[in-house]
Structure formats: C-alpha cells, structure tokens
Amino acid sequence: MKEEQAVGRREFTLSAALAALSGVAITISACGGGGGGSPTSPSTPTTPPPAASGGDKQGLVATNHGHAAVITAARLASPADVSLDIRGTSDHPHTVTLSAAQVSSIAANQRISMESTTDDGHSHTVTFN
Predict the structure, then answer these.
(1) How far apart are CA 31 and CA 33, in angstroms?
(2) Which of 25, 28, 91, 102 is the most interior residue, by most CB within 10 Å?
C-alpha cells in the first residue's frame, strides 16, 4: 500500500513558486491551515487583477474571499519597507510585509510573491506583477 506524506505550508509554497516560475498552472482549492475559521467558498482568480488606478499596483491574492492588496503609486515612487493590510471586504485581516527592495522590484514590474500573516486559521499568497 502506498503511504501518503503530508506537505507543510513552507514546502507547498516553495513548490508552488517553482511551478509558477516554470509556467505551470496551479489551482488551490481552499485556504490551508485547518481550524474552524477557514472560509467555505474561496475563489481563486485565474486572470491577473485589473490595473489599479493612478499608477497603483494591485496584487493577486490566492484563494481569495474578499481580500485586496494594493501598493499606492506614492509608495512605489519612494520605496520603503511596507506592511499592507489586505482585509478588503473580508471579515478578517491579513498583513503582507514587503521590504524596500521588494517594493522597488514591484515598481520595476518584476514578479514578487509573499505569504500573508496567518489569521482566522489560514494565510494567502499575494503576487504582484
């Protein structure tokens, strides 16, 4: 009988990032982390988010259920460390922390993916560009 092996969040995130960089499509069916607070119907956008207005950059939030990640044009023009509150219309918060170097990369249209904080029993991967 074949033995199944559980994959931790860190291993999954690394594998997903490597697959994304190689052009493989990834579908995530639900928020991870277990617990009773996980949403029941997350949706995973299959297309990039619409361009934010005025030079702002909007991130793609994996397994999204109302969260929004936006870096304003002003922050992109003067890169510094930033903590984004990605609550959006969701009933719970998450935070994504970006270094000044990552903000500069996003401003230069380079792809950056970061894991949010774990709140309400789960986290989200946010990808810019």
Answers:
(1) 7
(2) 102
- 0.70 exceeded by the pTM? no
Please state, in angstroms and rounded to a whole number, the distance separating the CA atoms of residues 57 and 128: 7
Q: Which tokens go with 107?
A: 């401003």
66-104: b or e for each residue (b if 16 or more CB lie within 10 Å)? Answer: ebbbbbeeebbeebeebebebbeebeeebebebeeebbe
Residue that the structure tokens 């990834």 belong to: 26
Three-state DSSP at 121 gives: coil
Are residues 84 and 70 in contact, defined by beta-carbon separation less than 8 angstroms? yes
Which residue in 61, 71, 56, 3 sits closest to 28, CA to CA?
61
